Structure formats: structure tokens, C-alpha cells
Amino acid sequence: MEYNKEQIKNGITIHYLNTDKFKTNLIALFLSTPLTREYVTYDAMLTAVLRRGSKNFETQEKISKELEEMYGAEFDCGLNKTADNHILKFYLESLNDEFLPENAGNLLKKSIDSILEIAFNPYLENGCFKEEYVMQEKENIRQRIEGKVDNKSAYARFRCNEEMYKGKPTGLFNFGYAEDLEKIDGQNLYEYYQKLIKQCKIDIFISGKIDKEECKKIVSENENVNKLQERNAIYMLGKIEEKQEVEEKTVVENKDVTQGKVVIGLDILFNGEDIKDNNLRYKAMIYNSILGGSANSKLFQNVREKASLAYVASSMYVRYKSNIFILAGIEIENFEKAIDIIKKQLEDMKNGDFTEEDLENAKKGIISQINTIDDEQDTQIIYFFGQEITNSNVGIEEYKNNILNVTKEDVIKIASKIKINTIYFLRN
To answer: Quick check: is 8 in a domain?
Structure first.
């Protein structure tokens, strides 16, 4: 795989992932905008309404018909929250032209033009979004918002994060808030769309057996791209920053659950000297893997296997905010015992109570995950988009080497900076 990128206008970047590993081309379009309480629900609505139709494909049925004629191409879109960014995502996958009949035309061009059409040339009625589409999608978004509690584990993770980041973008719910839906209509949603399109950071990824110059020509000559203005957009990264220790708090919430859900939000208290270290994230990844990131982890072995206090006991590292979240499903009466044992694992990590074998197993596990990046086109794209957001230029081999170079002393140093921010307990 060969990766290149270039700006065609300020704030608009094309990324080329040239690979002959797949029979398909995957086009991904990311629109990154600051995550705010005022517009979080608008972003969710936009993603839903834009997929309903464009100027040339007025309905979802017409979009589907167009995809069928493109030899069964597939289209999807979604919404991601990354650090303090809200990212509207559009994907279109189609067969590579070399696998099509000679008279099939240029399917790559058609694929790129189609995804740009849906995102940048929406279907309008009377100069705004079709009211019928807006009303229907409001109900769909409302159901999604109200249904966030249905998945109890995901809900507990969200609530812990919300408590940790009250009043801050990171604490917002990805799909917004039901109370905002009433004020959204076709007119003000379209006005917001126009504002977003002028200001958002735009990344266009093209993956497959492709020719860079051909792709650049297709995008550069696209009429919808030509209408876009240059912009001084930046990613709201929430870069690694100095953190101050906060007083540990416990939040208990009652819902109709049969199993208790514990989520512990940990801060990594990096200081000014720490953040100069470009390898911090690799050290934190190893720490997380040993703590709770695998079946051999301390949490799994001690909380689940030995003490039999949890059905699930694991942890996840959130790079962009320097957080680790511990996740456990427990019998409700075991809450105090589970917390005590979890806290002991944190202390053991600070004391270096883990082996070189634990360290090597963690490295092997992470490198095994890194090796899967090239297995799917979308994981390749996600990897390089992550590099773009963080303004990094770390290739996959360098990534592996950085993991291999982490020492036990590095992990202990990370452990010494771990502090509990919030303990969230969902129970009946």
C-alpha cells in the first residue's frame, strides 16, 4: 500500500491509498466540525437528511437505483465524535474498473462524483431541506436519543464520560438532545448546513488500485468541489494537555437492570514535561493492555477469574483525552468488593507488580491488532485519518517499533500518573 495526500484548497485534502489488495475502491468523505452543545443535534440531523436525497437523486430510492446501476455499489453515512470534533462520514464502495466490462465506463469517477453529489448538492424544496424528510428524521433521531439507555453497557460508558466532562464538548451525546429537535426545521437546518460547508475541515479518501493523478483530476474538476470555498479549518483535537487531579467522585444511577454496570474513568495526569514526549500514547497503550486490555490482563484475571466478582472486566484507552475507562459487569451486591479489587490492580501497576512476560504479551497483542490495519480498506482509512487529526506522520512499521520500544519503567511511570476521576455505577 502506498499513501499520499495533498491539499487541493485550504482545508480540503485528498488522501490516496493505492493498493492492489482489494477488488473494490472505497471512497470516504469526512466533514469535521467543532463539537458544540448548540449544534450537536443539528449535526445528527444533517447526516440523516443528506442521505435522503440530492439534487440529481431526489429520493433514497433513486440513490439506490443509481447504486444498482453502478454494479451494486454500496453507500452509507454516519456520525463520529472524536475528541472535540463532530465528524460527518460518507462512504461509497464500488468495484474496481479492471473487474468491469470494457463498456462499463469510468466507475471510479462515477463513485467519486456520486458521493460528492450527496454531500454537497442536497435535495431542496423552496430553497431549504424538504420538510417531510426533516420531520421523518427528527423522529428517527428522537428514537435514537431516547433509546441510548437500551444498551446498558454503552449507556454506562456514556454517563461516566458525561460526568467527567460536564459542560465540555467531550461530554455531549453524539446524536444530540431531544429538547433541541422541536426547534429544527428545513429552513434553519439548511442555514446551518450552509455555514458548516463553508467552515468544516474536508478530507476525501480514495482507496483501491488507483492512479493518483486521475483521482486528483476527477476531484478537482468536480463541480460540487469547485463551488467550495477555501477555509482555515482546524481539528478540535483536545491535544494532550496538562491535567490537574480532581477529587474522586462516585455517581450511582438506578435503572431497570438485572446486572450492575461499573465504569471507572481514569485521568492520566501528564505534566508539561510529559507532553513533550511523542511516545506517550504507546506507553499508555501498553499500560492499558496489561491492566485490562486482554484476557491475560490484571483486571480479567483478578476481578473476573480469581474473585469471580465480574462477568466482564476490561479497560479501554482513549488517546485523544488521555483517559482510561475500566468496564465491569457485576452482581449489584458485589459493588464495594469489586471496587476494592480494581483499586488494588491500579496500585499493583504503580508498584511494578507485573512481569516482563506481561509486557511482551501486551506488545504482541497490540502489534497483532496493528497487523490487521491492512486487512480492510476502511481500517486503513481510519488509521490515516487518525494520523491526519493528530498531525502525525507515523507509518505502520514505525508504529510497531514504537510499541516494541516501550519498557517496564515506561509503564510504571504511566501508572504513577493514573488517578480516578469518576466511578459510575448503574444498578436497579
So the answer is: yes
DSSP state string for 74-118: EEEEEEEEETTEEEEEEEEEEE-GGGS-GGG--HHHHHHHHHHHH
Q: Are residues 81 and 156 in the same domain?
A: yes
Residue type (1 letter), 309: L
Angle of CA points 255, 259, 265, to nearest 5°: 80
Judgement on whether residues 200 and 259 belong to the same structural domain of the protein: no
Q: Is residue 26 part of a domain?
A: yes
Tell me the C-alpha distance between 199 and 194, whole Å. Answer: 9
* Residue 322, in any domain of the structure: yes
End-of-domain residue from the set 226, 257, 277: 226
Residue 218 lies in a domain: yes
- Pair type for strands 310-318 and 260-268: unpaired
Q: Encode burial over 385-420: b for 16+ CB neighbours within 10 A, e otherwise.
A: bebbbbeeebebeebbebbeebeeebbbbbbebbeb
Question: Given the DSSP bridges, would you call strands 201-208 and 12-18 parallel, antiparallel or unpaired?
Answer: parallel
Shared-domain flag, residues 407 and 261 = yes
Q: What is the mean pLDDT of residues 288-311?
A: 93
User: E strand or H helix at 141, and its extent?
Assistant: helix 131-146
Buried b (16+ CB within 10 A) or exposed e, 283-298: bbbbbbbbbbbbeebb
Spatial separation of the C-alpha atoms in residues 23 and 421, rounded to whole Å: 47
pLDDT at residue 241, rounded to an integer: 67
Q: Which domain holds residue 255?
A: 249-427
- 50: Cα within 13 Å, side-chain hemisphere: 30
pLDDT digits (tens, 9 = 90+) for 324-383: 999 999 999 999 999 999 999 999 999 999 999 999 999 999 999 999 999 999 999 999
* DSSP 8-state secondary structure symbol assigned to residue 61: H
Full-model pTM: 0.94
My answer on whether 172 and 320 are in the same domain is no
Q: What is the pLDDT of residues 52-63, one digit of tens each?
A: 999 999 999 999
